[in-house]
Amino acid sequence: MPRTILSFFFLVFLIAFPVPGHCQDIMLPLVYEQGNDIRGWLMSEKLDGIRGYWDGRQLLSKNGLLFRPHPDFIKGFPAFPLEGEIWGGRGTYEATSGLVRKEEPHAGWLSLKFAIFDAPQIPGGVEERLAAAREWFLTHPSPYAFVIEQQTVKDAKHLQAELQKIEKLGGEGIILRKPGSFYEVGRSADILKVKSYDDAEAVVLAHIPGSGRNKDRMGSLLVESVDSKIRFKIGTGFSDAERENPPPVGSVITFKYYGFYRSGIPKFPSFLRIRQQ
């Protein structure tokens, strides 16, 4: 039986019997390294939003926490699972995070969109999964959802040119997908993230008072890396509001850095955000 017919019957099955999502079991990218042969791979902008998982009935965070979107936001979503970013545009992560964390549905959701990058339970490679999502929204249009456009990478030079273009526009980076790759749980070499900097997570241990312009408010954070357990300070990347109300002790933050010193301490660490649960 042709694959397109099999896909059709699978979609009908999912609509009739939606499968609950397990948001802890998701596909995650590895980091692109120079020298990787990515000619012919799919390339799209890495949107800096809140990862969402539509399980066919409700919208969940990557850790399985239930979002409570405005009913119009999810109206017309399919009965099969989708993965994407809840996104308000470039440079709006903090505002988006604040909107989606509210415990009751509200109209603020209608300023956001669900930017779809996978349909994990559709059979076939990544192209077929994205095609199924596109086909659904062609026949069930939503002003609050779209499938992220992909382009084919010509070579490493093409990739770097696109990365520079995105970063100049205020974007975060690029996601690469290996053509024909199947959905798999956990870190996968078939999906890579490309950025000019690396990022990681750390636990806040203490607030260190500032001086000069930052007198009487937080000057830096003492943190411990989640991965390496190395302790270091982060003193840049904070807004005035974040210095006056810094991330709580015990919270997990995301920071960016540019390689490591021999001691293992990240070079030029800079605060990005409190991790969204």
What does this entry look like structurally?
The chain is of the alpha+beta class and 277 residues long. The chain folds into 2 domains: 3-9 and 20-194, D-amino Acid Aminotransferase, Chain A, domain 1 (2-Layer Sandwich), CATH 3.30.470; 198-274, Nucleic acid-binding proteins (OB fold (Dihydrolipoamide Acetyltransferase, E2P), Beta Barrel). The chain has 6 helices and 15 strands. The protein has helices at residues 3-16, 71-74, 93-100, 126-139, 156-168, 240-244; strands at residues 27-31, 42-46, 50-54, 59-61, 82-87, 113-118, 145-147, 151-152, 173-177, 186-194, 198-209, 218-225, 231-234, 252-257, 270-274. Strands 1-10-9-2-8 form a 5-stranded mixed β-sheet. The protein has a 5-stranded mixed β-sheet with strand order 4-3-5-6-7. Strands 13-12-11-14-15 form a 5-stranded antiparallel β-sheet. It is globular. The protein starts with a helix and ends with a strand.
Task: Determine the CATH superfamily of the largest domain.
Answer: DNA ligase/mRNA capping enzyme
Level-1 CATH class name of the largest domain: Alpha Beta
| Beta-strand fraction estimate | 25-35%
Tally the helices. Answer: 6
Q: What is the number of beta strands?
A: 15
Averaged pLDDT, please? Answer: 89
**Helix/strand/pairing category:** alpha+beta
| Spatial strand arrangement across the major sheet | 1-10-9-2-8
User: What is the CATH architecture term of the largest domain?
Assistant: 2-Layer Sandwich
* End-to-end Cα distance: 43 Å
- What is the overall silhouette? globular
What is the fold-level CATH name, i.e. the topology of the largest domain? D-amino Acid Aminotransferase, Chain A, domain 1
Q: Helix amount, in percent?
A: 10-25%
- Give the uncertain stretches in residue-range form: 1-24
Spell the H/E element sequence. HEEEEHEHEHEEHEEEEEHEE
Largest sheet: 5 strands, mixed
Give the count of structural domains: 2
CA-based gyration radius? 20 Å
